[in-house]
Amino acid sequence: MRSLEQILNDISKIPFHDTFGTKKEIRYLPSILDDNEAVLSFTSGFFDGNTWLIVLTHRRLIFLDKGMIYGLKQREIPLDHINSVGHKIGLLLGSIAIQDGASAIRIDNIQKQTIIPFIDALNRSIDNFKTGRNIRRESPSISAADEIKKYKLLLDEGTITEEEFKIKKRQLLEL
């Protein structure tokens, strides 16, 4: 599970974002995001009668609304399910419409300066996902034993020293 600190670090790198009314949702993100899933873009807007946090990762679009006292509403759309994305920009606020084949979601009252960067990031992510160029990929599961065997071969070849092998072995075995 990603820590709140890692998520806040991701968020700090996003030039245009809006966290209005979504502090509780941001604090809840560590329990939703996978270890290898980073926040690429986000904004907030009015949807289904409440202010929601809309988060884009390399795999999915997440909508979160943490209730005032309790409860959580969460909706996700995998990137490969998004058929179209549209937007409208007004004088101060705008809206985003997302079609996922079965339904349409319209998020209103979005800060206008966040709309274009969010849409651009979403379209890039959809394209990367559909063409197999994900920003982050699942790393294959490699056991500590396999890694130790690899370092043992390096030791036998003379590429690393006995001391380097012992250090790496301790790290892998978490001793």
Word description of this protein:
InterPro entries: YokE-like_PH (IPR039519). Residues 33-123 form the YokE-like PH domain. It comes from Blautia pseudococcoides. This is YokE-like PH domain-containing protein. By secondary structure, the chain is α+β, with helices and mostly antiparallel strands. It has 2 domains: 4-131, PH-domain like (Roll); 142-175, no CATH class. The chain is built from 5 helices and 7 strands. A 4-stranded antiparallel beta sheet has the order 1-2-3-4. The chain has a 3-stranded antiparallel beta sheet with strand order 5-6-7, covered by helices on one side. Helix 4 (144-157) packs antiparallel against helix 5. It is elongated. The model is unreliable at 135-140 (pLDDT under 50).
Overview features:
single chain; 175 residues; alpha+beta; PH-domain like; 2 domains; three-stranded antiparallel β-sheet; 5 helices; 7 strands; 34% helix; 28% strand; elongated; YokE-like PH domain-containing protein; YokE-like_PH
Quantity of strands, as a count: 7
Proportion of helical residues: 25-40%
Indicate the low-confidence ranges by residue numbers. Answer: 135-140
Instruction: Kindly report the CATH topology of the largest domain.
Output: PH-domain like
Ends: how far apart?
22 Å
Series of H and E elements = HHEEEEEEEHHH
CATH architecture of the largest domain: Roll
Main β-sheet, spatial strand arrangement = 1-2-3-4
What is the molecular shape?
elongated
Can you identify the CATH class of the largest domain?
Answer: Mainly Beta
Organism: Blautia pseudococcoides
Protein name: YokE-like PH domain-containing protein
